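Suppose you are handed a protein chain with no further information: no name, no annotation, nothing but its sequence. What can you learn? This example shows the usual starting point.
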Amino acid sequence: MTAIAERADRAAFAQLFARYAPRVKAHLTARGAAAGAAEELTQEVMLVLWRKAALYDANRGGLPAWLYTISRNCLYNRMRGEQRREADDPIETPEPVGGVSSGEEILISLERQRALSVCLRQLAPEQREILEQAYWRGQTLQECADQRKLPLGTVKTRVRLALQHLRELMKTRNDK
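A reasonable first move is to predict its three-dimensional structure. Written in structure tokens, the prediction is:
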């Protein structure tokens, strides 16, 4: 670390990278990061190591602990960013069908769409995504299963549970 901090020694960094990158990736995967995301985050962590090597203090803890702390923070930052994007991006809801004519009917239709969008956000991500694929993108359940590399029965169960949960959410929302 001293060689990296003081001289920007690329050979020393390559050695640290070879030794610790697989450990960091395994740490991120164990914390729930998907394989692709873990790979990207590992690159970010190692870039932080390169840029902030001078901040490392061996008296405060070992290098693995420092790297795991950086990796955890990078993962949390990524998760927070995804949550913000999900909150900013409204879930697509189907367009109302039929010829809505009066202003009151339009408002009722828009309120139902808004309620559906709010309730969809409350579903588990795997259930919400399956519903979006099957009902809004028009994919068959078999296509959903193939795309996600899941058994067809699992997809059908997720759809059934998602629709059941969605009905309950909409019902409690309407009862208020």
